[in-house]
């Protein structure tokens, strides 16, 4: 069974685009929540993401893994595929 991946984004955020590109390159299907200008959605994201208000914020199987740098860090450590399995 594939992991449930969710990502909170802004349309013009280069870090969001980069994180989505990594996931797409790996063939991962994900649910994207575009929260541009939506303060209520941003509050929900921050609540789920340990108070983090920057985008992107990424969740794998309902576990907060962080933002763009975090997901690329997991990839470089060889740990991302384990989480996505």
Automatic annotation (TrEMBL):
Any single biological process term in GO: cell redox homeostasis
Source organism of this protein record: Calothrix parasitica NIES-267
Gene3D superfamilies reported for this sequence: Glutaredoxin
InterPro entries: GLR_AS, Glutaredoxin, Glutaredoxin_subgr, GRX_bact, Thioredoxin-like_sf
Keyword Lyase: no
This protein's name: Glutaredoxin
Family: Belongs to the glutaredoxin family.
Glutaredoxin domain ranges (all copies): 5-65
Function: Has a glutathione-disulfide oxidoreductase activity in the presence of NADPH and glutathione reductase. Reduces low molecular weight disulfides and proteins.
GO molecular function: glutathione disulfide oxidoreductase activity
Swiss-Prot/TrEMBL keywords: Cytoplasm, Disulfide bond, Electron transport, Redox-active center, Transport
Superkingdom of source: Bacteria
